[in-house]
Design a protein that fits this description.
Number of strands: 12
Largest sheet: 6 strands, parallel
CATH class of one domain: Alpha Beta
CATH superfamily of one domain: NAD(P)-binding Rossmann-like Domain
Radius of gyration: 20 Å
CATH architecture of one domain: 3-Layer(aba) Sandwich
Low-confidence stretches: 295-304
Mean pLDDT: 95
Strand order of the largest sheet: 2-1-3-4-5-10
Helix content: 25-40%
Number of helices: 9
Distance between the termini: 61 Å
Length: 304
C-alpha cells in the first residue's frame, strides 16, 4: 500500500516510516517546503503528486506551552492545516487517518473518557486540535478516522522518557507531578495501530470503520509513576536513574493547563478495528532498550 504521511520528523511520523516500511508499505513523508500546513494551497499539490492509497495526517504544532502565545500559528497548522489535508483526501477519494489528542478534553472526569464525552479544551493547543478534528470530519467525515492518542513517547524526538533520562544524568532526585494520570503510549505502538486502521479502511468501506476513536496503551499511570518505571528500566540496563519526589500540579506551574485526567477508554477501536495496544510497561522496556543498548562486558585484559 502507498501511504502518504504529513510531516518528516516527530515521534509518530518517524515511527510510521520505520514500521510501515518494515511491513512492506511504500511510505512517503511530506513536509516543508513541498507541504506546509500553514499554506493550504501546498497541501493539495503535494498529496496529488504522490497519488497515495491512504493518507495519515500526523504533522502538527505540538508545543503545548508555546501555543498559549502563538495561538494563530497553532490554529493555522492544527486546525486549518488539518482541514486542508482532509479536503485533499476528499478530492483524491482516499481514506484519511488523522492523529489527535486527549487535550480536547478538560480532564475533570473521574473515569476514562469515551469518544462521546463532551469536549472542552483548557488551552490553545487542545482548542486547535479540536478545531482540526472538526475540520477533518466536515471535509471528509465519510472516509476519515480520527485517532486520539496521549502521553506519547518513543526513541525519537523530544519526549518525557528522554527528558527524564537526561535529567537523571545530572541529578540524584527529580520532582515529578503525581496528580495527573494518563496512559503512557509508545509511538511505535501507535504507528503499528495506525497502519492497521488504514489497511482496514482501504479494504472495507464500512462506515463503522470511520469516525472518532481513542487509541492509547493499556494500563495507566501518573507522571511520577511513569518516571519511576523509566528509572527502574534504565537502571536495570546500567543507565541513569534518580529518586522521584512526588509533587502536585500546583508545585510545577506551566503556561498551559494540563488535564488532571488524560485516560482514554479504547473499547471502541478494539471492537471496530481489532486494535488493542499493549501495556505501557512492556512498551517502555522496548523503548529504553532502543535508547540504551545493552553494554557488552569485555573480558579482562591479560597482563603480559
Amino acid at each position: 500500500m502507498r501511504i502518504a504521511v504529513t510531516g518528516k520528523v516527530g515521534q509518530v511520523v518517524t515511527s510510521l516510516l520505520e514500521r510501515g516500511t518494515a511491513a512492506g508499505h511504500q511510505m512517503i513523508a511530506l513536509g516543508r517546503p513541498e507541504l506546509d500546513l500553514a499554506d493550504p494551497a501546498s497541501v493539495m499539490r503535494a498529496l496529488k503528486a504522490v497519488a497515495p492509497d491512504a493518507i495519515v495526517s500526523a504533522a502538527a504544532y505540538t508545543a503545548v506551552d508555546r501555543a498559549e502565545s502563538e495561538s494563530d500559528l497553532a490554529h493555522a497548522v492544527n486546525g486549518t492545516g488539518a482541514g486542508a489535508v482532509a479536503q485533499a483526501a476528499h478530492r483524491l477519494a482516499v481514506p484519511l487517518v488523522h492523529v489527535s489528542t486527549d487535550y480536547v478534553f478538560d480532564g475533570t472526569l473521574e473515569r476514562p473518557y469515551v469518544e462521546s464525552d463532551p469536549t472542552g479544551p483548557t488551552g490553545v493547543y487542545g482548542a486547535s486540535k479540536l478545531a482540526g478534528e472538526q475540520a477533518v470530519l466536515a471535509a471528509h467525515g465519510d472516509d476519515s478516522a480520527v485517532l486520539r492518542v496521549a502521553w506519547v513517547y518513543s526513541p525519537f524526538g523530544a519526549n518525557f522518557v528522554k527528558t527524564m533520562l537526561r535529567l537523571a544524568g545530572d541529578r540524584d532526585e527529580l520532582g515529578v507531578v503525581a496528580d495527573q494520570v494518563g496512559n503512557p503510549t509508545s509511538a511505535l505502538d501507535i504507528a503499528e495501530s495506525i497502519l492497521k486502521v488504514a489497511t482496514n479502511m482501504v479494504a472495507d468501506g464500512n462506515p463503522t470503520l470511520r469516525g472518532v476513536f481513542h487509541m492509547t496503551a493499556s494500563g495507566e499511570a501518573s507522571w511520577a509513576d511513569f518516571a519511576e518505571a523509566i528509572f527502574a528500566a534504565s537502571a536495570a540496563r546500567g543507565g541513569p536513574s534518580a529518586r522521584v519526589r512526588r509533587i502536585t500540579t500546583a508545585d510545577y506551574p506551566t503556561p498551559a493547563i494540563r488535564p488532571a485526567n488524560s485516560r482514554l477508554d479504547c473499547g471502541l477501536i478494539a471492537k471496530v478495528h481489532g486494535v488493542i495496544l499493549p501495556d505501557w510497561r512492556g512498551s517502555l522496556e522496548t523503548v529504553i532498550a532502543r535508547l540504551q543498548p545493552a553494554k557488552i562486558e569485555q573480558p579482562p585484559r591479560k597482563e603480559r
